[in-house]
Amino acid sequence: MTASPPPEPPAGAGPGPDLARPDDTLQAVGAVALRLLAGAVPKRTLEQLQRTVQESPSEYPWQAVVRTVLAEPVDDQKLVQQGLQAQRDWILRGGRERPAPPVGQRAKGLLARLVAQLIVCTIGTLLVIGALLLVKYRWPEWDIYRVLGWIQDLAQRLR
Questions:
Q1: Is the N or C terminus of the chain more exposed, i.e. has fewer CB atoms within 10 Å?
Q2: Residue 88 contacts residue 30 (beta carbons within 8 Å)
Q3: Can you give the residue ranges of every domain in the chain?
Q4: Per-state percent for the chain, helix, strand, coil, to nearest 5
């Protein structure tokens, strides 16, 4: 993190913490991390922060993020409860790994893959049948069933 001049606080945010002092910076960043971990940052604020971060690809605007998140009002008791639940889940999960998607979402994915494979196999089968019919039409004397007999003989030899 490089030191850059602090951005202007959002309207109604008040002066906020003095991010130039290490102790205040540590407490402010910790408070923001707790709010993010607990899911206590409103969606519209997260969307605004995403735009802010995307507009600064070379340098993370951490001071603007800290000031914006801390400007949001929060119920301290509820924040502590949500934070402790998120902390417990984090520990039980073993860290940053994302939990598996819900069973319904996995089932939908499986169904989508099966349908896609069915479509591809159907198209492939139709192409093979079409090619065999074209061969039979082009060379009527050629026996297309000879291939089936060859496959059956090969299967019997492999047993």
A1: C
A2: no
A3: 22-93, 103-158
A4: 65, 0, 35
